[in-house]
Amino acid sequence: MSSAAEQETHAAQRETRAAQQAARDGTPARPSATAVGHPVGHRPTAVAPRRGRTTAAVPGPVVLPGSPEPLGARPRQGPDGAWGTNFALWAGGAEAVDLCLFDDDGHELRCPLPELTHEVWHGFVPGVLPGRRYGYRVHGRWDPWMGARWNPAKLLLDPYARAVDGDFALPAEVYGHVRDWPQQHVADTVRDDRDSAPYVPKGVVVGDDAADGAPDEWTEDRRPKTPWAESVIYELHVRGFTMRHPGVDPELRGTYAGLAHPAAIEHLTRLGVTAVELLPVHQFAHEDHLLRRGLRNYWGYNSIGYFAPHAGYAAGGTRGQQVGEFRRMVRALHAAGIEVILDVVYNHTAEANELGPTLSLRGVDNRGYYRLQQDPRRYADFTGCGNTLNVLQPHVLRLITDSLRYWVTEMGVDGFRFDLASALARAAHGVDMLSPFLAVIAQDPVLRRVKLIAEPWDVGSGGYQVGAFPPLWAEWNDRYRDAVRDFWRGALPDARDLGYRLSGSSDLYERGGRRPYASVNFITAHDGFTLRDLVSYERKHNEANGEGNRDGSPDNRAWNCGAEGETDDLDIRALRRRQLRNLLATLLLSTGVPMLVAGDELGRTQGGNNNAYCQDNETGWLDWSLLEDPGWHALTELTARLIRLRRAHPVLRRPAFFSGLARPPEGLRDLAWFTPRGTEMTESDWYAPTTALGAYLSGRELPQRDPHGAPVTDDSFLALLHAGPRPVTFTLPGPPWARGYELLLDTAREEQDAPPGTLLAAGAPIELPERSVLLLRALTSVDLRQKTE
């Protein structure tokens, strides 16, 4: 324990550092608001009176100098060979940092970190071993007008904490300012000196345990390493995927262990998807407005710990056990040939704007971690969530890249989808594809080798950047979503946009050496209607969210097939199932990387809620009982069949764009478009309204070679799409395109197994059913002779 003399020395050091900081800033202790918000000369900061529970500043054990590297809490041997933990925290501008250690009874020991190296406060504490809980209190000026919001009364989560124990509640005590100050326009300037430690979770010291999958567990040869062009992504929620799964043990449902369960993985392998894209699994917090309404943040786009697996998804404990459980989940998915992609939220944190709680970064160094407006009391908000991380600050950029590398090298993940990626690509004066963040990723030897997916927009000016990200990056292609939705609801003015989207979106991605797999094609995502709701509702029904149905986008591009919501009308129900087959067939036959949303293949519904971010209940969870319904079971089988077809035929997953050029000797094109008359589409046809078109994909000369250098060839296919309400006559292209055709898929059928020997004559007219997709295999003379013998 520290002596009284040592405590006095530490206090004197803090005073000296405060004076030095003020001298560097060139400002005397800048005033804050008084209780009534009026300025009063050079005065001390206004603070609220202490009320409620507090934690005494009990001195802790002796702290040795330790090391400023690596950041975070890392167990190691000390100078005398005894084990302990090195603690290191970057806190630019802080005057002092107290390490706070908690025992199993919640008693707090405070250990001032003695060393400061390049703005990193650090120290080694002997005897602190994995499983010990901790946090920080950071001392500094309270001057919101200058963006300074240090408040040592608030216990802060280590930004590098690898595990978190406890839940975030949001009583008034966790706010750095007096949340309920009568004059709300200055409430954020009045410091709250009540202790937050009893109300916030703590970081947990985590060791490198080989039994749970140490870094050498993730050598490259253990990863599926699925090529981009062969990928089929399946977006799912760790909790929602298994909460109602009858094959998963009840105590494992909704957890990492539940997703690793053989019953859960069996569904993924039966579908044939190659990667799961997990909604956020970083430690996140629930928003105050949701907690007040008895709701919770279900999706998790409210991160607060970028190294810690969300503790709420752990079945085996939260004192570090969640780390091993997550690793075992990844290992089980890899063993099944499935990659793991994380949806990550580095654009903002759960601390919101100046009226939000003080949980971590705000209390460590508000001016360093966040983008502030010209009035530094306010936050720049390019995310719609109250704040934006300042990726121009080197240590913030380091936080993000250290986190990404950690999840790759030590947790085993295979890629990332970056929420609101344009916010990360913002430089000093707007979105810049040469920004520090993108430049660092491009040269990083670890990160440039994993799958990188951008959500290429944010809510700021100039934030919409679809097609603009550099090579290495794929993008969520919302133009694909909109074009396909509009086509199948009969709202496309002409065929131009649909043609680009079905063939890989070359207008967006061919520049700069990018490939068709830069386009992540999707029709639905977690945000918006499910696929079933897309054909059952035209208007959002978000009343359960408690926001008066004001939340969620009103632009759904949906068609309810004649009735809003569920109906007993058998014809409408049959039409809806047909539309689902059309949408799934379109997605899985398009060039690019398809992304499915978990449950769409089951006919999952959210009752018309297109913003179920707070529905941690049966609305948001998958209903596995749908598989018992023959109609929905058939939809699942169709999805798996389409994925198998895609995997078997490289022409359906081309790694290079089509040229569209006629090739000798027969003048065949690698991609040709046809009208119902059986003629190739002309320029005027592209500008004319249409509900039906055909796409011929040639497999004769694919732009790729096998591992031995031999050319890759494939069958050729003709896909016919018809979104109109009545059948049309479609003349099938004759020679040289084909000598005949074999029917492989007809979405007008509930069951998709075509009668054996279903052959169609080339050059002959067929009746194309209303609202349907037909996939035909083009037959050569040899094929035709073999089929008819």
TrEMBL record:
Feature: compositional bias, Acidic residues: 209-219
Domain of life: Bacteria
SUPFAM superfamilies the record matches: (Trans)glycosidases, E set domains, Glycosyl hydrolase domain
This protein's UniProt keywords: Glycosidase, Hydrolase
Keyword Hydrolase applies: yes
Compositionally skewed regions (Basic and acidic residues) per UniProt: 7-17
Keyword Ion transport in annotation: no
Name of protein: Glycogen debranching protein GlgX
Native species: Streptomyces endocoffeicus
Lineage of origin: Bacteria, Bacillati, Actinomycetota, Actinomycetes, Kitasatosporales
